[in-house]
Specification:
The chain is an alpha+beta fold. The two termini are about 25 Å apart.
């Protein structure tokens, strides 16, 4: 382990924003992390944990220490007739972990294929896609408390999962580093193909009795056609959460905009696609100098090369203001703005 000064973070965030960290260090085990947290030069600094860097927008240099999580390893903790409990190091690449589960014929996260980021970041925002959320297969996680270096366990209830939310994004924000996550995966597969895009893609693939491998392939195809590859165009995937609004508000909205799409959340709440709202405000495909909104998906802000984080943040705020002005709905970023 080596603390490095004035370290460029351009290669460690998928937006490709060229900022520097006052201090930067990698850790590959829990013991190395605990050792780092005992170092005075680390203790006295503000800390930022970076995994895949796919959910962060840097607007300035980070005047603290960036801890790069590189904890690897996948192991079966236990299994029964129906399930396998699979534990993964938090530094594992998420999609590579999904591929591992497919190779071992374990179902549950095939709908979450090709989501960028690391295993450790997945429970922090309760990642989700195409009708599946991480909490559906989550068993527990291990995390190191920054202030003490002690290891704590969190189960599904204590994580307080919500829509793109967990206790680690609010009450315990910045207090823990996730070091391992255990998933409860299915031997007998329960496919979720309820989303129309998956059904259509499977039909195009001429698949009549899909497997978890087919569903994953369909999801990868959909994501590849809709979302830009961060290795080619700087982005962090969906920048905004889909807003959930009261049914009464939605009914007023639908009276004014009859073609507004929606998804019921409960008897009193409706989810409206943020991408549709943004597109109706004319932002889809808009290019501003070296940055803009992706041409195929209005939820995605992109850095075409050389953009500043502050420019992208201002673009996000302008989009939020225009959507609120037109529809009376306030969007919230899914990406952490630093």
């Amino acid at each position: 382990m080596k603390l490095e000064s004035d370290y460029s973070l351009k290669a460690y965030n998928t937006f490709g924003i060229d900022v520097k960290a006052k201090l930067f260090v990698r850790f590959g085990t829990v013991q190395e992390l605990q050792q780092l947290l005992r170092m005075p030069e680390v203790q006295q600094e503000e800390k930022l944990i970076l995994g895949g860097g796919s959910n962060v927008l840097f607007t300035k240099d980070f005047e603290g220490v960036v801890l790069r999580n590189e904890i690897k390893g996948i192991e079966v903790v236990r299994e029964d007739e129906q399930h396998v409990y699979l534990k993964a190091g938090s530094g594992e690449v998420w999609h590579e972990f999904v591929l591992y589960t497919l190779q071992h014929n374990l179902g549950g996260i095939e709908n979450l294929s090709l989501i960028p980021g690391s295993v450790g970041a997945a429970p922090l925002q309760n990642i989700g896609a195409y009708g599946v959320e991480l909490k559906d297969v989550f068993h527990e996680l291990e995390a190191v408390e920054l202030s003490t270096g002690k290891i704590h366990q969190f189960d599904n209830n204590t994580c307080q999962f919500g829509y793109r939310e967990s206790i680690f994004k609010n009450k315990l924000k910045g207090q823990y580093i996730v070091t391992a996550v255990t998933f409860k995966l299915h031997k007998q597969h329960k496919l979720n193909t309820s989303y129309g895009a998956i059904q259509t893609t499977l039909q195009e693939m001429q698949v009549q009795q899909p497997t978890i491998h087919d569903v994953s392939a369909a999801v990868c195809h959909i994501r590849s056609t809709k979302l830009p590859n961060p290795k080619e165009i700087g982005n962090a995937g969906s920048f905004f959460k889909n807003p959930e609004i009261p049914l009464a508000q939605f009914e007023r909205l639908k009276a004014q905009f009859p073609d507004v799409p929606s998804y019921p959340v409960s008897a009193t709440t409706v989810k409206v696609p943020a991408g549709w709202l943004i597109e109706q405000c004319g932002w889809k495909g808009k290019v501003l100098d070296k940055y803009g909104v992706h041409k195929n998906q209005a939820l995605v802000l992109v850095n075409y090369g050389g953009a500043k984080g502050e420019q992208l943040r201002q673009l996000a705020y302008d989009i939020i203001a225009s959507v609120e002005d037109k529809f009376g709905i306030k969007l919230h970023p899914e990406v952490n703005i630093i």
